[in-house]
């Protein structure tokens, strides 16, 4: 399976992917999923055979690149696509910030730890799902 990951202005496709994963699969409310940060963030789309398969968002806040709204459609999970999406987000953020931060769903902590993130602080509820903040240097 081959894929490519690009920085995009196609926020509508990113929102469609996020809707499928976060709202439809995970039951996150639209009010919790859609916020005012999309217009000021960088967006990535992962394509498999020219079809959108995943997305992530990078919001620069001072010296920190907050990576969020990371999702991969179910058929592509476990393929390495998600890890490549995070690596691309880190690459895009490098030079724009010195630290990367993301709020990881607790079930995905090991995935992010394998990519160099370290969990910090307590577990917290975000949209009804347990999360922990994670950080890593860029």
Automatic annotation (TrEMBL):
Q: Name the InterPro entries on file.
A: Acyl_CoA_acyltransferase, Bact_Acetyltransf, GNAT_dom
Q: Which Pfam families match?
A: Acetyltransf_10
Query: Which keywords does this Swiss-Prot/TrEMBL entry list?
Result: Acyltransferase, Transferase
Q: Which GO terms describe its molecular function?
A: acyltransferase activity, transferring groups other than amino-acyl groups
Domain N-acetyltransferase span(s) in chain numbering: 1-138
Would the keyword Hydrolase be found if you checked this record's keyword annotation? no
Q: What is the protein name given in its UniProt record?
A: GNAT family N-acetyltransferase
State the organism named in the record.
Answer: Sulfitobacter sediminilitoris
